[in-house]
Amino acid sequence: MINNMLTANPIDLSTRFTLSVNQLQCIRDDRILFENLNFSVASGEILQIEGRNGSGKTSLLRILCGLALPTEGSIYWQSEDIAALKGDYWENLLYVGHLAGIKTELTPLENLRVTQALMMKTTGIDLEEALKIIGLCGFEDVPVRTLSAGQQRRVALARLLVCDVPLWILDEPFTSLDKAAIQMIEGLLDAHAQRGNLAVLTSHHVVNCQHARCLDLNDLP
């Protein structure tokens, strides 16, 4: 069902997307989190960032989103520096942070309406259907503050079904989710990659996706 829904829109596999990192360094509080970091992610790939607590995983994702600056190095989207692209880059990505990033006084449905209004490109999916797929049927119209941590995480991740962008950047997307929900998100990731898109995520959970590979920040040379 997930794959059918995500592939409802026409797929243009002639468009190849690439996110690349060149000689990236990040220093926080006079401590080097990582340096000389180089990697690239292309269409059809899912990159899982691993590392011990404090190794810089969240800092790296924030840098990839343009929410923070690296101490040194550059990030390129389609071979162009994201510092120059700015809005043209941001409209191609969806970032779901470690915190849910949702309005707890609003309902799940209202939160998705806000997302839909803010995004340049949407999938066109019915928002109630998106909440049903994500496992929130019957909770569409209750305040988010009354939901469990796992349900609130599902509200945040429902944006994956609404936003039609090639690049997903996800910080610990499986936090507070049960086994069934984790498998569903893994299915979304695989379907996203099969459409010729790409994703970068952090997780302490072993991601069971056909298109996933790992980069451990603690194994850098």
TrEMBL record:
InterPro entries: AAA+_ATPase, ABC_transporter-like_ATP-bd, ABC_transporter-like_CS, ABC_transptr_haem_export_CcmA, P-loop_NTPase. Residues 19-219 form the ABC transporter domain. One of its GO terms (biological process) is cytochrome complex assembly. SMART domains: AAA. One of its GO terms (molecular function) is transmembrane transporter activity. The keyword Ion transport does not apply. Keywords: ATP-binding, Cytochrome c-type biogenesis, Membrane, Nucleotide-binding, Translocase, Transport. NCBIfam families: ccmA (TIGR01189), PRK13538.1 (NF010061). This is Heme ABC exporter, ATP-binding protein CcmA. It comes from Beggiatoa alba B18LD.
